[in-house]
Structures
1.
Amino acid sequence: MTSAGFDLVTRPWIRARTLDGSVADHALADVLGTAPDLAGLAGEVPTQDAAMQRLLLAVLRRSYPEVRSPREWARLWDAGRFDIDRVRDYLNGHRDRFDLLHPTTPFYQVAELRTAKGELTELARLIPDIPAGHQYFTTRAGDELRSMSFAEAARWIVHCQAYDASGIKSGAVGDERVKNGKGYPIGIAWCGWLGLVVAEGRSLFETLMLNLQAMRTLPPAEVDLPVWERPPQGPGVEVGHELPAGPADLLTWQSRRIRLGHDGQRATGVLIANGDPLHARGLVETEPMTSWRFSEAQTKATQSPTPVYMPRTHRPDRAVWRGLSALLARDDSAARTRAGGWLEWLAELRSAGHLAADHPLRLHTIGMEYGVQSAVIADIADDALNLRLAVLTDEDLTGIAVAGVDDADAAVRALGQLAADLVRASGGGRELAGVSRDDAREQGYAALDPDFRRWIAGLRADTSRNDARTAWQVRVRQVVSTLGHELLDRAAPTAWAGRTDDSGRPINGATAASWFHIDVKKALPLAHPSLEGAVS
């Protein structure tokens, strides 16, 4: 491609996977036109796919501004595909804004952005999987960091606007916030605040549709504009635009000011400066793709007369099912919880009869974890759970799923206590082959993980609630009892000789096993009176 431009409407740049598993780059118009034939996006990292999906949702919101109710949504769902001519007509109306290299309105960038010294930084600043100073942890190094294709650069620019870390940025000329040539921290980019929840379907079309919420509080279409329908931004904060006007505005929020450097053939450098700051408080009605928690600290800090909610985040080291109770929390003024817009929307579609109770979904959770002062990217949370719509929308079935997590938690606590008791019985001087209370708990969750995923995927609208939970408790008992046997087999000899603990109570391997037996029975009452295989 020459310096004439790189048209994102017609040039391939969005990486997607077909239903047969092959991966290729697609143009913006084509990826929407062929969405029923695509399994999903397939970018370099999960957060890139999330950021790209939000871009596609903004395009759809503007291509179909009339979709403002479940009934209008259902007409598009029943059509089974997006009207490619309609999408192209919309994109062609804003063609200059989708040119990555446009001289005055480059996509997601500021054309005249510069520093006082006129320098650019290395492209690695765009890429979250390049640990600063530790390039040996990545496949990218040397020449691969000095340039990249325009297609890949465009993907990373979308990602940067959504997930860039905080910290000091390049000081852009014309930005009144710059001091001593530096752009001091304004916080992480918008999506970094979110524990993103994406309801995925059997194709990219279904996934985009399931997340194209016709929210009750949608502002007028002429007010809620994506960035490419707004006047081009300059280097500083856009005056009068402190908060997003609506979902389309928020989906394309410009957290950074960016300019890509290139030689006409490839991207060669980048300038990243501060953009529009945005705090997560107060946006519970505008951001649908996350769940929310009450924040006492934010409520006090803002002296708000009403509760302030903040997005729930995901932990990279914790399976999504372990936090199912918080993820599926419904509006409860007493508990001060708020359901995510994504959950309310799916419930509304089922209630209106537009989706069947047993419609299969993949609940995909994505999030970014930041390091010290949020100035570096530490890890990415990426997990998914296959289930039926009824698990999300039927209160009784949701309760069974959450109770299943509680059963696992209680049994794993018993396993952890067994490990702790065996260490105490040995005098505490020798660990059990490195197995501490925390180690045992993590082993318990890891062992139960595939079983829970199979169990919840099997829950259907007509499932017997009692039978399902009984079957789950029986399985948990089998898994945890086996792990308990293994802990006892590895116990130090001194643990079996035992000792008297600080309270004067004798403790040894036999008493630890007996207590474990009692704890498991209390944790899993439906798995009794039969306790074959339990430790005794």
2.
Amino acid sequence: MQFIALTSIGIEHLLAEELQQAGLELGKQSVGSVRFNADNIAAQRFCLTTRFATRVMLMIDESEEINDKAALYKFARFQAWQDWFGPTQTFAIEFNGTNTELKNTQFSGLVIKDGIVDYFNDLYEQRPNVDKTDPNIRVIAKLNKNKCALYIDYSGPRLSDRGYRTRQGKAPIREHLAAALVKRSGWLDDISRPLFDPCCGSGTLLIEAACMANNIYPNINKEFAFKRLPSFRKSKFDETIADVKSSQTDNSLWLIGSDFDSKVIDVAKQNAHRADVDSQIKFTVKDANGLNSVAKRAGVILSNLPYGERLGSMAELVSLYRNLGIAFKKHFQDWKLALLGTDDSLFKLLKLAREKRYKFKNGPIDVELNLYDLNARQVSQNEQKTGLNFEGSSAFANRLKKNKQGLKSWLKKEQVNAYRVYDADIPEYNVAVDVYNNSAVIFEYAAPKEIDDVVAQKRLQDVITLTAEQLDIAPEDIAVKVRKKQKGESQYTAMDKQHRYDTIEEFGAKFKVNLFDYLDTGLFLDHRLVRRYIQQNAKDQRFLNLFAYTGSASVHAAFGGAKSVTTIDMSKTYLKWAEDNFALNNLKNPRYRFEQADCLKWLEHAQGQYDLIFLDPPTFSNSKRMKDVFDVQNDHIQLLTWIKKILSPKGTLIFSNNKRGFKMDEVGLIGLGLKAENISDNTLSPDFKRNKQIHNSWLITHG
């Protein structure tokens, strides 16, 4: 009988080796699969013992002439289905693939179902029922152009789900991939050596290593699909299980795992207990940033290193990889390293020469296993004195230090605790650095096309390191907002959120900020003086805040004694944030209103009168929730036309935008009977004086 074993991309060769070692005859090998020939007993034994397969299917037949519905029906109709199940059993169809005529997999599945049902009706005058959730038999069809193969699901539930892992860490790897990493690491060549995972998470790598070294097979207790086939013989299967169990050994292993998260370590211990290898592994709580020696004998370090699964976490990663590189050379001479990750630029921070690389898929994510040999030559390599990628990065450090010193007296006088300390002062270091209390945000500007991506990445890594040093801020408190193309399907994967909030004080008001979970923090620092103007001029005024974001200007208006405050934004999230800011300042009044609306549409139909209006529209927007594309340069006169209708006779509009090179249409303004005073220079506080293009501001009143 012919079978096909499925696996993840990158593991096919290991799966083929595993099949050969099981004494099975190999067939065609392709991406993610290997065919093989076996009898039932051998195939069942393989399902019990495989480390690398995710699924095993029994081939019924294949045809290269499936070009339409009729051919597909005929192909299914004339198979000997009674060999696999009977008319009283249930079945389900799983169909994959399309061609020019068969374009809908659901329809194609129904065609196969009809063929099977008609077969049993003709033979027994009785038909089996379909059960999509828990069928006795699952039929799989795979179509590629005109070639279609029919299979019976032989193994059942995913073989990589061993059953010991009910909870897992943040960046989990499938058990079959973990087994592949153990194999590729080389540790199995000499299991007397220590195996150490400094970022062990829920312990999957070490648990798989323990099982592989001692011939423990967690799949033994699995409910395999082949048990429901007519060919299954329980007595023979029990003999196979007994034989497999008899091969189990009890080698004394030296397995060490550590992680900074005590809760995750508890999960790892529970997983190891369920796999019956807890006595083989020592788990401890330890931060990988402070690694030191774990064993007197050299061994293998195998780890799935953290990567950017959270927005803004790059500073932590840069610090971790740099610290790991130093620790490896200092404490682990003669060890072998096998490190899994996604970003080659991070691996380069280890300052180690790679021996070999294997590429895999962890779910939808492209990952690579990098192998290193920490021999004497690697360990003794001289690094740059600064430990930076570029000696010239010291110029950035000096500018950061100089700017901070220059702002010191102003910060103290105004009691400012959120400010910009650097803004692309040196063209090669094209970033902005903002400080929020004891944290910082680094925002990378788009680099010119002539700048090499690798060079830009290395400069950013130096910026991160030097920002932490010069501002005395821990890497985990630095958020980095980078331009980064995500690979493969990872671009569709939602980033984890840290839900870390801080409180910023500004001219007596408090604001909630989040530095890590969004591209913006919740407070536009460059509008600090505009907000102060609003506070100073809001007394007894009817205040309107359009495109309000998190409502910071509204809070200042309320602080200044506004008669009423109306806050409008399209985002439900931002309006809730605005309400939180009001609550943070104990501001309660029935005349403080929050309205979710498209500001353009709201303005077009707005009624009533407002004495003080703050209008800070986006430079450009083609939001799905906005009917038309909006451009502030082209559309500002239309905005002001609508504003004029609701601006009270003696009222003031504060109009601001962030478009570089914005030109006010003075003729259009005169035509509306409005006059404008440019106050841009007066709204730039000392920390933004270096970038006069950060925003444009006007006071607009009736002429």
3.
Amino acid sequence: MSKKLINSPDRAVDESLHGLVSVHPGLRLLSGHRVVLRADIEDLIKTGKVTLLSGGGSGHEPAHAGFVGKGMLSCAVAGAVFASPPTDSILAALKAIFSPAGVLMIVKNYTGDRLNFGIAAERAKSELGLDVRMIIVGEDTALPSTGKSAGRRGLCGTILVHKIAGAMAEKGCSLDEVAATAQEVADSIGTMSVSLSPCSVPGHKPSFQLGENEMELGLGIHGEAGVERTNLQSANEVVARLLDHLTSTESGYQYFNPPNGTNVGLVVNNLGGTSNLELSLIAGSAIDYLTSKLCYNVTRAYMGSLMTSLEMAGVSLTLIRIKDHWTEYLDYPTTAPGWPNQPLGPDGSQERNSNNATIIGSGSKRETELKSTIGPPVTTVGQKMRDCVVSICKSLTAAEEELDDLDRGSGDGDCGSTLKAGAKALTECIDKIPWDEPSEALLSVSDAIERSMGGTSGAIYTLLLTSGSRVIGKGECLSKWVESLMEGIRAVKQYGGADVGDRTMLDSLVPAAKALQRSITDSSPSLDALKAAVEVQCTE
């Protein structure tokens, strides 16, 4: 059972809806029901426009209440966590939003939802004479059924139906037009998901378990297990697998596997527990794969927590084959708080182009030189310096887990991985560094570390090496190397604001430098001096 910041499992949904409408003044609750309405619903009905209703179990926030607003849903009905809402609440919602132009209900393909929303629709028709239509969204491509939509679960692609249908209704289209296009959109989308962890309903244990090195493909959004379990793969591999499946004829969606240059839309959805860092990484990977590998034209892309599964760590990718006139509805403004509004481009448009991710003016002169040139042959002294750095890089890489574990006791647990990143960058450019020119070599090593090692440690090593490079000269004797080290330490103290005793790397670095100085004064052999520096303990 995972920890959750709630007061009571029984009150969690009601208190969550209360918080939602408290934050967003454009939303209201329908008294006595878990129904969220547009605050201007009465004015909307007076305009004679089609109104839209959707909903389902809670636990998928911001869906569905987060998509209530001008240009999207008129109202959303919430059930208990992962449970279909009761018929009486759906019927109450239909009464509250009934418009002379009619009501369209957008329902995800789950048995409970189909039954309860269907019953409410029939009662509204027979008892009240309301014109109510219902379309079913079932775009889950993980399940093998073809032809009929029975079996295919409704997932994050549902929000695209909300958006296009909502914009059409806002613009005054008829119920027939809105319903027909909504169904066409529902038939033009596909979704595939992957999970790294399960979720748990408040007050209950997770419905399945995943090992440390396992992931689950083809999840639903109710905590159920997927269709395949496999070993954890890299983000690029996962993205390729999901998109290859989505665009294959095996998915049962003939809209996919379209010709090169087809306009498609992409939705990268956080299932709940995925970090923003991972989500953006996956979005970039997916767009790159769609454009370069599959040769599609990604004209719209959306990213965020849109149709979640509580705290499940994972993502879903949704594709839609976009017809020309649908972009108008996708771009139509909405006040729904959950919709990921796209930022406008410099020309005021929302069109993506293939150069959006191009880095402008990147790379320092030295970085460019390191990437494009091979260093000259090195002498024996330079070779020894190179071999020493190679040995250090191997040791740091091998000690990654040990250093991370030590860092967890006092920091954020990334010391080993940070040093490994620097070691990897150095290894990749090792033969491009001018080892026979110690000053230039230190600057080159500094540049590689600055590019690859983030955080405070990367900055400190860069400062140490850059400052030390100014005084090392040709590095013709050990005393020049010690002078370089002391200059680097001086700069670290000045800019870092720390000193010996502050529990930083200076607690080891300063005693080591002083041990070197003493050894040189005593005319000790170089290796003995280095040994003394390594073994010295901080007693000052």
4.
Amino acid sequence: MRKPSLATLVAALVAGSLCAGAPRTPAAAEAADGGGGIPLSAAASSAELGFDLDTVTIPELQARMANGSLTSSALTTAYLRRIKAIDPTIHAVLRTDPTALRQAAASDVRHRRGQTRGPLDGVPVLLKDNVNTRDLPTTAGSLALAGSPPETDAALVTRLRDAGAVILGKTNLSEWANFRAAKPTSGWSAVGGQTNNPYVLDRNPCGSSAGSGAALAASLAQVAIGTETDGSIVCPAGMNGVVGHKPSLGLVSQSGVVPISAEQDTAGPMARNVIDTALTFSVLSGTARPGDPAALPKTPGKTPGKTPGLRGKRIGLWRLPSLGPEVDAVMTRTAKRLRTAGAEVVEVTPPYQDRLAELEFPALLSEFHRDIDAYLATREGPRDLAELIEFNRAHPAEQSCFAGQELFERALAAPPTTDPEYRAMRAELKDLSRRSIDETMATHHLDAIASPTNPPAWTTDCARGDNDVIPSSTPAAVAGYPSLSVPAGFVDELPVGVLLMAGDQEDTELLSLGAAVEHRLHAWRAPRYLPSAGTDASR
């Protein structure tokens, strides 16, 4: 059977988005009225624009810009105002780009002339601060890189600029993408401090793309870019109630992104809905083409196409009871709704997980030493891992949340990637991780495997560190296969995502399935910025 192209999927999703529109949920209405602690000045931005920033999609924005009822300048101004009003509460955005409004004005000229460059032209995007930008600092959250910006943009930033996206600014992250201390606190960096979860402010946003996930939950940009080695896109997406796509390895260039491991690292799109995620992925992966009529519809509701459905799909449910009975109840409800929509859901347990957990970390230590040395050689500051360790010892601000750098020290002493023992580890990891997914899907004739993305967000605590033993992301992360987190429901006030994973290079199929799951679960709701949930801090 011929596989659908990403362009075909995008056309169908655009059509569905424009025909149906994004529903205004009761929670969104409450937030727009300033309920639950959101500043009224931020809510006013939606009223001025004439639509809800929480729920509007890129196709709807492009349709408005095409008919002249919206400009990129107005949209960018609205997001900048929200950042100014809301971000002091959540600390998700490290800095905004002083050229953002100039970028937006250039997009407005292109729209007036009919020379738009694609689906992201004029759309504000936030970048995780481990993605190189030539005109903004790129720090990975560390004071060691807080001096001069890199000399060149990351390859993915070049693609975003070429597509006309407005680079709105940089988001906070777990310092060094959570690969410094043995017991880190996700969302904390020496540069940006602690990012808070917008749903409950004393809860954690998960790492390491913490700022990207929290910023999207608070509607501080239309889309954001995250990065993942194992869980760092999908966990922040799940814990902040948004969508996150970890692409198949190699589909998005890692050139100019602060590394952990070339064998697992990838950047990927995050958004409040699947259509925006798919459109951003089409740009990051080089699939989008300027002037694509499917991506830039002229009239809402007039684009032909059909939103993908669930009937006849076979989905394997990997329950992961270790995440607790409340999360399992969310998965039970999810399975019931998918079955009601015509999907077949069967319970599965992918094999080899204990062995993957045993091998992954030692392999990453060797790879980090190799890859961070190569990256640091391109930047001002510490020139290699040994100098970086000495920098941290000499700067007390680097120890203000967690003092340790045990992972740095262990990586410095790890076997080189030329060592036969390391090579055997990575070969076994690649083999077992791929078999864990491939064999499960083949045995049960599945279109995808589904599992909980995350537990309810734990209370942020520097002394204790994270409570984030979340095994669902590992098979796809180690294999280099795609995964996609979609909002599934809530445990009290805290979001839980459902993680979908599939075979190598099956990103288009996974996004199509994710859109159908999103439509059926309809689980998103706006955050209320509660100071505390008043429940067990270990959850």
